[in-house]
Automatic annotation (TrEMBL):
This is Dihydrolipoyllysine-residue succinyltransferase component of 2-oxoglutarate dehydrogenase complex. Pathway: Amino-acid degradation; L-lysine degradation via saccharopine pathway; glutaryl-CoA from L-lysine: step 6/6. Its cofactor is (R)-lipoate. Its EC number is 2.3.1.61. GO terms for molecular function: dihydrolipoyllysine-residue succinyltransferase activity. The keyword Isomerase does not apply. NCBIfam families: PRK05704.1, sucB. Residues 2-77, 105-180 form the Lipoyl-binding domain. Residues 91-104 have a biased composition (Low complexity). Keywords: Acyltransferase, Lipoyl, Transferase, Tricarboxylic acid cycle. InterPro entries: 2-oxoacid_dehydrogenase, 2-oxoacid_DH_actylTfrase, Biotin_lipoyl, CAT-like_dom_sf, E3-bd_dom_sf, PSBD, Single_hybrid_motif, SucB. It comes from the Bacteria. Belongs to the 2-oxoacid dehydrogenase family.
Length: 502
């Protein structure tokens, strides 16, 4: 019985790819989901896993061939009479079925990482080689640009091998380790002990670069030593060459920047310093915020709001609200409602630039910035303009807790049209928030502080908060920004306006 290996879906508008590398040759034994070959499209590299265990019977599309979606790449000859044990090769063992006392091995594979996320860093292993594990027990944690992903054990047994150690970068569907089934304590332990020794002598192998990358390097007049490969096992891809060429062109302009160079450090000071590699999340935050400053014509306008009425309304109904809805009534629902109200009047603050077009959003997906132990994340509350106070408070509480636990998915942090950032929870009195691209507006909330205010000719102590709206001046004019902030102020100083849509 044979199983066909076909080209998978390559992505929107992508109809063909080039076969870059075959990792197996005809006659090699393969296991289900083991990577067989790598395809290269105009944009991304796609790894093709084996659809079944068996033997690679033949290769239909050789390296360098151009293939379309669903085209036949190869055929797998399945071994119907034998289990997975006979397919997986074993060192120094004859080609016979494994003894009945041994159990099958199961690969630990990187799970799906989310839309547009192609790689992750192994941050922590909770188990070490030789440890017994139960099915679905957490083995390790991966860190992507946005979220942390826990990897459960696919089977019960013994962790026989770790192929991707802490700090290593792995692609989606890459192999992390191996679980060997524990047929008996006597059989499992020796296997675990031998695993590290067996893995250690694995020799480094020459990695063939993508054909298109070789061509691009020849055209650019550079060699592989000048390019950092991001493909499997460090293989150089076409986009790596483009990045190296772009970096070389940008180098002269970047060289004079003194801010990027550390000052002199004495040996005594160096001994008291600690150098820690930035997490992927922190690197992404830094890049996105700097890109935002470099792209948008960012400007900030300020106002202040008297929180007397909101605080009085909250104090009057907070107990009844909690009893009926099971969630506390906070200030964020008032601000979310006020912003949704203002965005209807000033829609350009809820829009984004796409090339030479302005895309107006007839809905509000509200981003609520949340600080976590690993960095700033912005979960999105979808269709916030159609939600009640109770629904907003529940969504904020639930997503805030998931953010702190590192459980947010990529989908929960994408698609926002406007963002609210509350620096007041940390005591900030005034700040200028940075836009969350491609959004055109972000509201900064701050600390509520009692201040003397002139009210009807008299000085009264009022709970005041400074508000800051950072906006993209390419799409939002000063009049629109000021109008938006005034409408937020009016709605908060007289919450009845929200009920009457005034």
């Amino acid at each position: 019985m044979t199983t066909e290996v076909r080209v998978p879906t390559l992505g929107e508008s992508v109809t063909e790819a080039t076969v870059a590398t075959w990792f197996k040759k005809p006659g090699d034994a393969v296991t289900a989901d083991e990577m067989l070959c790598e395809l290269e499209t105009d944009k991304v590299t796609v790894e093709v896993p084996s659809p079944a265990s068996g033997q690679l019977a033949d290769i239909v599309a050789a390296e360098g061939d151009t293939v379309g979606v669903d085209a036949l790449l190869a055929n797998i000859a399945e071994e119907s009479a034998a289990g997975p044990e006979t397919v997986k090769p074993k060192a120094n063992a004859p080609e016979t079925a494994e003894p009945a006392g041994e159990a099958a091995s199961t690969d630990i594979i990187v799970p799906a990482l989310g839309e547009s996320v192609s790689e992750a860093t192994v941050s922590t292993w909770f188990k070490k080689v030789g440890d017994s594990v139960a099915q679905d027990e957490m083995l390790c944690e991966l860190e992507t640009d946005k979220v942390s992903v826990e990897v459960p054990s696919p089977a019960a047994g013994v962790l026989a091998e770790i192929t991707a150690g802490e700090g290593e970068t792995v692609a989606a569907s890459a192999k992390l380790g191996v679980i060997s089934g524990a047929a008996s304590g006597a059989a499992a332990a020796p296997a675990a002990e031998k695993a590290p020794a067996a893995a250690a002598p694995a020799p480094a192998k020459d990695v063939a670069n993508a054909p298109s990358a070789e061509k691009a390097m020849a055209e650019a007049g550079i060699d592989g030593s000048q390019v950092t490969g991001t493909g499997r096992d460090g293989r150089i891809m076409k986009e790596d060459v483009a990045a190296a060429v772009a970096a070389a062109k940008a180098a002269p302009a970047a060289a004079p920047a003194p801010a990027q160079v550390r000052g002199p450090v004495t040996a005594d000071d160096a001994a008291r310093e600690e150098r820690v590699k930035m997490t992927r999340l922190r690197q992404t935050i830094a890049k996105r915020l700097k890109d935002s400053q470099n792209t948008a014509a960012m400007l900030t306008t300020y106002n202040e709001v008297d929180m007397t009425e909101v605080m009085a309304l909250r104090n009057e109904y907070k107990d009844l609200f909690l009893k009926k809805h099971g969630v506390k009534l906070g200030f964020m629902s008032f601000f979310t409602k006020a912003c949704c109200h203002a965005l209807k009047e000033v829609p350009e603050v809820n829009a984004e630039i796409d090339g030479t077009d302005i895309v107006y959003k007839n809905y509000v997906h509200m981003g609520i910035a949340a600080g976590t132990p690993t960095g700033l994340v912005v979960p999105v509350i979808r269709d916030a303009d159609a939600m009640s106070f109770a629904s907003i408070e529940k969504a904020i509480a639930e997503k805030g807790q998931r953010a702190r636990d590192g459980k947010l998915s990529m989908a929960e942090m994408q698609g926002g049209t406007f963002t609210i950032s509350n620096g007041g929870v940390y005591g900030s009195l005034m700040s200028s928030p940075i836009l969350n691209p491609p959004q055109s507006g972000i509201l900064g909330m701050h600390k509520i502080q009692d201040r003397p205010m002139a009210i009807n000719g008299k000085v009264e102590i009022r709970p005041m908060m400074y508000l800051a709206l950072s906006y993209d001046h390419r799409i939002v004019d000063g009049k629109g920004a000021v109008t938006f902030l005034v409408r937020v102020k009016e709605a908060l100083e007289d919450p009845r306006r929200l009920l009457m849509d005034l």
